Amino acid sequence: MIVTVHLRDDVADELGQDKPSLPETTQLMRALSKQGVQLKPMHPGVADPELRTHFFASTEKTSEAEKLTKLLATLPSVVAAYVKPPDAAP
C-alpha cells in the first residue's frame, strides 16, 4: 500500500538532512523511524515549489497504511496524508 504525504515547504526542504533545524522535521523523522518507514519524494529532483512537497511511503498491509496515515495526520509538519486507492482498470 502507498501512503501519499504532503509536507510543509520548510519541512520538505529539511527532510533527509542529518541535522534538521526545525523541531517539526525531527518529530516527523522520529515518527517515521518508529514505524519503520521512509518518505521518498514523489517527484525527485524537481524545482517546482508545490511538487517538491509531495512524498510517499510504502507499507505491506492496508492496516499499516491506515495506522501510518492517522499518525502523520497528527503531526504539524504534515499538510495532508492519505492511503492511495488501488489502481483501477480503465
Label this structure with key terms.
90 residues, alpha+beta, 3 helices, 21% strand, globular
The run of helices and strands is: EHHEEHE
| Count of alpha and pi helical runs | 3
Structural class, please? Answer: alpha+beta
Q: Strand sequence of the main sheet, in spatial order?
A: 2-3-1-4
Write down the overall mean pLDDT: 93
Strand content: 15-25%
Q: Tell me roughly what share of residues is in helical segments.
A: 25-40%
Largest sheet: 4 strands, antiparallel
Task: Produce a short descriptive summary.
With 90 residues, this protein is an alpha+beta fold. The protein contains 3 helices and 4 strands. Strands 2-3-1-4 form a 4-stranded antiparallel beta sheet.
What does this structure look like?
This protein has 90 residues and is α+β, with helices and mostly antiparallel strands. The protein is 34% helix and 21% strand. The chain has a four-stranded antiparallel sheet.
Write the layout of secondary structure elements.
Elements: E1 2-7, H1 9-14, H2 23-35, E2 40-41, E3 54-58, H3 62-73, E4 78-83
Antiparallel strand pairs: 1-3, 1-4, 2-3
